[in-house]
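Input.
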Amino acid sequence: MSQSTHGVTLDAPSAAHKVAQVNPKLFSTLGDEQSVDVLVVGGGPAGSSCAIALAREGANVMLVDAQARGRDKCCGHCLSGRAWKIVSELGLRELVESVSTGATAQVAWRSGAHGFEMNLPALGAITPRVALDKKLLDEAERVGVRVVQPATAKWLDAQKFAVRLAERTCVVDAKLVIAADGLGSGIARARGWNPTSPGRKYGFAGSWRAPHALANWSGERIEMRVVRGGYLGMVAESHEQIHVAGLIDRNSKVSRPDDLLNEVARSWPLLAAALQEGRPSRWNAAGPLPWKPTRIADESTALVGDAAGYAEPFSGEGMRWAFESAYGLARAWRQHRGWSATAAQTYSKWHSDHIARRQQKTLRTAWFLAQPTRASIMCQAARSFPRVASWLACRMTQ
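Output.
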């Protein structure tokens, strides 16, 4: 199910989506009723990583994903260098490296006439989500997870879901339901954990064939541009593909991704020349932002990834937070030898200490830097005082 806002297709806040192509072999995995240890709803990095980690612990895991494998997602496609430790702890470093198309070493940041470049604290990676998500789901199947897709998952009660694959419905009884269904999580809403005052901003992303105007652009640099009403990040996924991602305030004059591209191009001749040759033909978007549920876990349900809370894409840490939440949940499972109210408390505290706290810092940093006037002052300070640039680099990759 989707909704359209200003011509942009947005993922609706629901755990159910329209069924696409169906693999007939999946029917053999579903009966009228199923009992599993863990039901994961959502097949992005957070959901797949949770499924893999718990299956390796010996749990009987089913993962339900709404879309066919190979669907692109709203994401900046960049994994920060600080995420490698968590990815390694999950035993997924080689897998992630196998789909990376390049590295990120610098951020070039500009607001109006002012800007500067800074080296990132650790070398990151460009990891297109189409390839990454597919590889993670393949690994989940390899370790014994039953991956059912494209299928819907409808909440019945705290531990029961109606999983629908094409015209067939199966009731799944799970000891633990892991909601990895993203911003506006349908499961969080069903549990009454959704925030009372959701944000008004939306993230978006899109790619297009690299234009001649960007032929000599460095593939190791992330370009960040701040304008009134939003900000834009751009990276070269490969020699043939340019990817942009950013944030817009739906109440501002740049309420559509194309508006933001055009606004940024007014002060960036290189982008203006590139847009003469082409632009993304399709946008992926998600929101609203920020999203902070009132609770993330109890004895029967746990939220991970964006569903457990997301600040803004300013720091580019979305994928790190996804892997990190999976690591935190698996850690609690291992510590308590399964899932319980105590395990839920352990995971909730770990998430608060390691993810939610940094997300709050990201929100404060983004508030300060996402306004052109304040951003210009910071740009000038960073160019004059190296320690300011170093501080900013750390704040942007919490």
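The two ends are 34 Å apart (CA to CA).
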